[in-house]
Please model this.
Amino acid sequence: MILRGLAMGLALFWAVLPATAATSAEQKKAAKAKTAAKGKAARPKAATKLKAGSKAAAKAGKESPLSSAVARLGKIRTESELQKEVASARNAVAGDPGNVDAKEILARAAIVASDWLLAAEAIGNVAKAERLSAFLRRDFSDVGARVQRIAQQGDPKARQALGVFYGRGVVLARDTEKSCAEFKAVADRLPGAGWHWAQCLLESSPDESWVQMERAALGGHAAAQEWIGRRCLGEFGTTGKDFACAREWLSQSASQGRPRAQTLLAYLMVSGQGGVTDASRGFRLYQLAAENGDPDAQNNLGEIYESGRGVEKNPALALQWYERGAASGHGSAQFNAGRMWAIGVSGKSDPAKARVWLVQAENKGIKQARQVLDWLDQQSSVAAPEAVSKGGVTELKDSKAK
Model:
């Protein structure tokens, strides 16, 4: 009887056991699903594409939206593309003021804009440099602290950007001492920073300044190359001239499109100093520099067309170039424009226009301007004085930079 009861108990135990195990497994599965659902519900939705998925992408080994945007910034080449990136980030911040990724993108866009500004200055593209400076002032007033953090992480271009901010009083308050310190920190790594550090030293430590200037020139900085070339021509307090040295440095700068270097190299080419004479190449360099706004080149190109030196004479075109140089404040160009309006071009004279330019030229110290003004005042029918009748008063020369 006992054995029979024991057997029935064992049979009942084995019959119940599978059902119990199955129930336990189902309960565990349900609990796990419930926990996952709670976690999903507790996770906040991303406000923008820039913020969403950064951590998940990092865990999965994929590129996050932030790193993708930063990589994109490194590839863009036009101001309009940069402005679009900034506008997109600004919209993201407007929708979510706590969007860290978008703020990071804005800071890095400011670093790019600063780098472009220095590059534009280096080749003498004043218009682009002014646009970028205005862009920084208008669109990046709130990124200074974040750029400082990026700089502290060891980014040299961020430190260079801080030098720009402090130096120009954009993004951060103007502070010349801090600007120089930032440029100094990365002078050996970035030619643009090296050029500006050299400028900081120019008055206090001129010898060290020129050492830094040469480093920047060797690093490819067009403005530094031009200044070294001009030093070889006897400027900046040096004695003696080395035209071959000047040609070497000015050629490097001119090849990057710096107008002032092109003008000086053109003079050396036309005059044959420091190397072979190459009037045709000199003329092309004058044209490039004049078209890019160098007033010395504009004046000298006017003289070439007026005198017919190497080209067909073209007084009307000569006057156009004289007036472009005059409008930039070039004294000799103002005199030449006034002189041509006084004696007439293609049979047409204009005493009023002549006086406008001649008065400005006289104020710049051009003594011949007074002779022409006196002649105009006399309204005499006699031949113009020598200063007026001379075919081209301003000869091609090594004009000093301003």
Notes: The chain has a mean pLDDT of 85. The radius of gyration is 36 Å. The chain is about 70% helix and 0% strand. Residues 66-186 form one domain.
